[in-house]
Amino acid sequence: MAEVALLGFKPQLVVPGMKAEAAVRFYKAAFGAEEIGRVAHPKRKAEQECPLILSAELKIGSSLILVSDCFDAAGEESAAAAGGGGIAFRLEAEDVDAAVKKAVAAGAEVMSEVSEEEGSLLGKVKDPFGVVWAIAAVGKKSPEPEA
Amino acid sequence: MAEVALLGFKPQLVVPGMKAEAAVRFYKAAFGAEEIGRVAHPKRKAEQECPLILSAELKIGSSLILVSDCFDAAGEESAAAAGGGGIAFRLEAEDVDAAVKKAVAAGAEVMSEVSEEEGSLLGKVKDPFGVVWAIAAVGKKSPEPEA
């Protein structure tokens, strides 16, 4: 199979029970995490008391981790519900379709077909070891929060 | 609490059923992973057919991941059994004791006390969100394989 350019991945912690905000606070207190970015869910209004965190990016030492509230969009299975204990890997690819096809050819199972989501092309596969990989296009940013 | 220097973490996938070798092969096929290091379990002989992988380090794009067979040493709970869906984070700290104390003060629970393990100081905590953090000393390498 042809080479597929993958740029790297970040672990993404999907927190159930609307506790992503609490998780962010915990990682700051426990590991001195620095919050370097946050994207609220675009359907939430800024004045709501408890905004859903689509993705907060934290830096712990030199490493990056994404923390997200668990939510179901359009009936899509959430990463937490689908296994992996709430931890998924967000893998950046130059060609999302090719990357998903290569993973499937190697034995991964499609969890959600490649589609435009969160402002970027995204496909999800589960590997034979139960790990969820969200394969996303490189350089496409999620929408800015409506702050 | 005083600052605790953390250098960063690597995700560690703990694979049950002696399938770490299969997982390494899968990640090479699926994501073009490059194996940049492997440490076999020091109690295994190299001539054994199916060596336990203490830790294989893979590079996917610019990111690193550790893949390990799941095994119980000295009655220690395995990461897979303890939650986190087989994914833990190996966090490098300059002062393991201080890092564990700070995490516990913030709400993490000790899974195994700090002790000399795999050739380096290591303590394990589980955070309030179910994620296992193996906090290890910086720069101490695991023992070389008996190849």
TrEMBL record, chains A, B:
**Which species does the entry assign this protein to?**
Ensete ventricosum (Abyssinian banana)
InterPro entries assigned: At5g48480-like_C, At5g48480-like_N, Glyas_Bleomycin-R_OHBP_Dase, VOC_core
Question: What range(s) does the VOC domain occupy?
Answer: 8-138
Highest taxon of the lineage: Eukaryota
Q: What is this protein called?
A: VOC domain-containing protein
SUPFAM superfamilies assigned to the protein according to its UniProt record, in alphabetical order: Glyoxalase/Bleomycin resistance protein/Dihydroxybiphenyl dioxygenase
Q: Pfam families annotated for this entry?
A: At5g48480-like_C, At5g48480-like_N
